[in-house]
Amino acid sequence: MGRARDERSAAFARYWTAAALSSFGTAITTVAMPVLVVQLLGATPLEVGVVNAAQFVPYAVLGVIAGVYTDRWRRRPILV
Predict the structure, then answer these.
(1) What is the distance between the alpha carbons of residues 25 and 23, in angstroms, rounded to a whole number?
(2) What is the domain count for the chain?
(3) Where are the alpha helices (DSSP H) in the chain?
(4) How far apart are CA 37 and CA 33, in angstroms?
(5) What pTM did the predictor assign?
(6) Hey, CA dihedral for 48, 50, 54, 57, is it positive or negative?
(7) Structural domain of residue 67, as residue ranges?
(8) pLDDT tens, 52-72?
C-alpha cells in the first residue's frame, strides 16, 4: 500500500510540475509576444491586435475540422 501511494505521489508531482511549467510558459508568451512585436517590428496597436488574434486561428480552424470529423464518426469509439 505504501509503495503504490509513493508512486502515485511521484506521478502527481511530475504532472503538477509539468502543468505549472506549461502555465508559466503560456503566461510568458502572452506578455512577451506583444512586447516583441512592438519592439522588433515597430507595430501599431492595430497590428499588435492582429497578431494577438492570429494566435487563436489554429484553434478555430482545427476545431471546425475536428468537429466535422467527429460528427461523421461513430460516437462510442470517440468517447472511449
Answers:
(1) 5
(2) 1
(3) 2-41, 45-54, 57-72, 75-79
(4) 6
(5) 0.57
(6) positive
(7) 2-79
(8) 899 889 999 999 999 898 888
